[in-house]
Automatic annotation (TrEMBL):
Belongs to the NmrA-type oxidoreductase family. Keywords: NADP. The keyword NADP applies. GO terms for cellular component: nucleus. The keyword NADP applies. Gene3D superfamilies: NAD(P)-binding Rossmann-like Domain, UDP-galactose 4-epimerase, domain 1. This is NmrA-like domain-containing protein.
Amino acid sequence: MQGGSVVNALLASKRYNIRAATRNPSSERAKELAKNEEVQVVQTDAAKKEDLTRLFQGADYVFGVTNFFDPDIFPDNIPEEERRGKLMIDAAKDVGIKFFVWSSLPNAAKVSNGKHNKVYHFDGKNNVAQYALMSGLPCAFIEPAVFMENYLSYYPPRKDGDEYIITSPLTPGDAKREYVSINSDFGRAAVVLMDDPKKWQGRTVRLASDLISQNDAAAIFSKVTGKRFKYVEAAAHYANEELAAMFNYFNDHGYYGRKPDETVPFTETKELGIKLTSFEEWVKEHMDDFSTSARCFSYPEDERLQIGSSMFMNKSYREKVNRSLDLLRGGQESEGDGSLLLFSMFGGEPLAESIA
């Protein structure tokens, strides 16, 4: 999702040739991307430094991101995410990349003074950011807030009689969280950083456009769609250990561990100079998805508090939910979020030039 947003923003800027890495160039997503004459799709194994070095050769800029929930990483090989991120940094430094934009997250262990030290998908990405800084590689970091798009994928609203329910475990209805639209705003922010490496060198952008609670979200859904939405907190056992650790961290420190006097958008986010999408604006853009039951889950009575993605589930629930997902997709198998692993951006050449 993040990589696709970056590609779209780079294409819109009309200033970059783009090289995109995928482990499966035959996938529908990769084929669709390759239809753009400014995009070269390259088969790459992000676990191998030699593949990354070949991918980055001749590039000026790189955007890097890892997917913690890739089945090659989670749940059995958690250190692999950090290892792959550091491989990207090493490869970028070896070939002389001019500027590297890394998708990072806050370090939950540091924010909580060691209390929340098992939010691995946050801490691993942040460790890669610190590694990049220490390496001397010109770099900057974007820490995206909670994805608004999660309401379309990981926990979509569920129809329950005449109303729609949004739900999440370990999240009080009045707890405020920072949000951002990845599809609308993440890529544009990354391009701003790439366009001015000198200004953004070594800096971190906490990318958040809105601060709302789940109760607020339900009210906004109701306002925009004309349907009745409500939030119901799911029981803690519906979250796997990784997500439970994350939600508990949120409850103690919020998403970023922000100071009480800090407002959203943050100061550095305002410096980007781009208009970000509010949650209400985002819901309006996706009104068709939330005003019909087509994308909403319907569970039997005894599963009412279950949320909508196997990523969030304990293992015992995953098979059942995956069957529901297959039905919603019309029986078509999903390629998963890990298909496009990272994107390497090429600048400085007119688009009429061939991509090296």
